[in-house]
Design a protein that fits this description.
Blueprint lengths: L18 H4 L3 H8 L17 H10 L5 H11 L23 H10 L5 H22 L8 H11 L3 H19 L11 H6 L28
Length: 222
């Protein structure tokens, strides 16, 4: 049984890297490889959250923890002077464009993610805002780019902070590389940026890896 760290900040010296990070389930990581293959770059499944889910996520983005998570993801892969939500260049892409927050929302609410990992992600929001209050007297989302950068660099000096940021960065890369049916990479925007052709056929809702029935093991195998 995994025991969640009960410390009060990223800098608690009693923190130990959780088992879910040490022994990360590779099932979802293998999904990234499914993007490789032969297929037409112009063929992408038309997937979007239904209206109820879109409304729920939009509402959640106004309050924590999703307010802070969205701000953190967008800072880790920000829009640049050469790209914005309406104009992607060959040089840059942002967390906003790849729907990183929507992808993380699906990870937290739909995909089979360990509860310890979800708890750690959410606990980190409180720790980050606590650190922001102690250093800047404001919550993380209220700060400017430079101050946010200082805080994230600060927590990265701790093992807990490094684990938390690496977890979010991992999901940013997943949002960029997985098929759109998983919530990120709308219309294959991440693949286009990387000049990559997604495999074909691509999964749609109802055909995602966690929705498929378990494969029967061959006789004689345990």
């Amino acid at each position: 049984m995994t025991t969640l760290f009960s410390g009060k900040s990223f800098f608690d010296e009693s923190y130990q890297t959780p088992e879910f990070i040490k022994n990360k389930n590779l099932t979802r990581r293998r999904l990234l490889k499914s993007a490789a293959g032969v297929g037409a770059a112009s063929v992408f499944p038309a997937f979007s959250f239904n209206a109820d889910v879109q409304k729920a996520l939009s509402s959640l983005l106004n309050t924590d923890p999703w307010l802070t998570l969205n701000a953190t993801l967008e800072h880790l892969l920000p829009e640049s002077p050469t790209t914005n939500s309406n104009n992607t260049t060959a040089q840059d892409i942002s967390a906003k464009q790849i729907n990183a927050t929507a992808y993380l929302y699906q990870i937290m609410t739909v995909q089979p993610t360990e509860q310890a990992e979800k708890d750690f992600i959410l606990k980190g929001v409180g720790w980050l805002n606590g650190y922001a209050q102690s250093e800047k007297k404001q919550n993380f989302v209220e700060l400017g780019f430079t101050e946010k950068e200082q805080l994230l660099k600060g927590i990265s000096q701790s093992r807990a902070g490094q684990n938390w940021l690496n977890t979010l960065l991992g999901y940013i890369f997943e949002a960029m590389l997985t098929p759109a049916a998983y919530g990120g990479n709308p219309k294959g925007i991440g693949w286009q940026w990387l000049e990559h052709q997604g495999g074909f056929p691509l999964p749609e809702k109802g055909q995602r890896y966690f929705e498929l029935p378990p494969r029967a093991k061959p006789q004689g195998h345990k």
